[in-house]
Amino acid sequence: MKDSTPFVAVIGGGPAGLMAAEVLAEGGARVELFDAMPSVGRKFLLAGVGGMNITHSEAKAPFIGRYGTRSQEVAALLQDFGAEELREWIHGLGIDTFVGSSGRVFPTDMKAAPLLRAWLKRLREQGVVIHTRSRWLGWNTDGALRIATPAGETLVKADACLLALGGGSWARLGSDGAWVPLLEAHGISIAPLQPSNCGFEVEGWSPLLKEKFAGAPIKSTTIRLGDGTPRQGEFVLTATGVEGSLIYALSATIREQINATGSATLTLDLLPSQPVDKVIKALSRPRGSRSMAKHLHSQLGIDGARAGLLRELSAKDDFLDPQRLAVAIKNLPLTVVRARPLDEAISSAGGVPFEDLDEGLMLEQLPGVFCAGEMLDWEAPTGGYLLTACFASGRIAAQGVLRWLSASRARYEHPGI
């Protein structure tokens, strides 16, 4: 007698794919997961180096706002599985969590590996079969999945397929965007993959700044883009421009400004805690025989990389006038002209548009094919927001698969309904 248990193939072993596999197995499906890499969860593990930031504890409204132009669509994904539900799910794996001083949520040991090990153990116990070194190549003419393995290509015929293939950043960990032409060949219009949470380049630093300060942090600074609200934090000077948490937080807006006009000018405040009149007063004090570098250090604490950046971005004559120099310190223009390459970015924007998906994340043009995770067209800053939406989208897509399979079975058994 033929087994009536539906068979679902999950393509991609990141957080979205693994979460989908769990929900599908719990829902009674036979699940096999295929991943191109030698092991699953590679990007997840690397993201945990230095501290596994799993989600964020801030209130729901600002949390949802982190998803920018796709806030409405991501809000629907997070409706039943947001930050609190994710923490409870982690606790169910035997991993405790805590909220850090920044509001970010971490496992108590700060590591991703124990969480992944516990999760994979649960999946194996649920009967999920995981195939590594198994790259999806699309479909054959009969609709079977083409899978490249070390032993050669094999065909997999599934009742439904769930794609969780990641974006286009960190190709060495599996997110290489190779799926884009495979879906485009079937008429799916993919929003171009672009770097997100990324560094940006300037036209060119002076040799002195690159030699002395590439890799140096600029701390306790605010950055404003246009008329936007200033954001305080720190960033890092690189040989080609700037990167770091403060830059990543603004990366989507910076990138779109560059796309629209060819460049974006950031306004830096190197002394956000001091009003301009106090800065003028400090700089106006006699410096005697001391150099301007020593004067800046003694009066305002500006030295090292901050002083180097001030020299780089200010006019030479500004240093002859305390008022002009104070204005430069408080409103230092930094123009960036391009994002760093996609493969260097922490995450990517673009992907499968929500407009091509139903509420269960099934592709309207390819019935039985569902999408989840970073391959969808959304983005978010670091801070746990990326992972939270990946987990949630995996659940939504898996639930969509189960509903679609149930409806398909009902139509098969009762063709008149």
How would you describe this structure to a colleague?
It is elongated and about 90 Å long. The strands form five sheets. The protein has a seven-stranded antiparallel sheet with strand order 17-16-13-14-15-12-18. Strands 6-2-1-10-20 form a five-stranded parallel sheet, covered by helices on one side. Strand 1, helix 1 (15-26) and strand 2 (30-34) form a beta-alpha-beta unit. The mean pLDDT is 94. The protein has 15 helices and 20 strands. Helix 1 (15-26) packs parallel to helix 15 (385-413) and helix 11 crosses helix 14. With 417 residues, it is of the alpha+beta class.
Give a brief outline of the structure.
Helix content is 36%, strand content 21%. It is an alpha+beta fold and 417 residues long. A hairpin with a 4-residue loop joins β4 (97-99) and β5.
Percentage of residues in helical conformation: 25-40%
Mean pLDDT: 94
Q: List segments where confidence is low: pLDDT < 50 over at least 5 consecutive residues.
A: none
Cα-based radius of gyration, to the nearest Å: 25 Å
Arrangement of strands in the largest sheet: 17-16-13-14-15-12-18
Q: What about the largest sheet?
A: 7 strands, antiparallel
Structure class: alpha+beta
Determine the strand fraction and express it as a percent band.
15-25%
Keywords, please?
alpha+beta, 7-stranded antiparallel β-sheet, 5-stranded parallel β-sheet, 15 helices, 20 strands, elongated
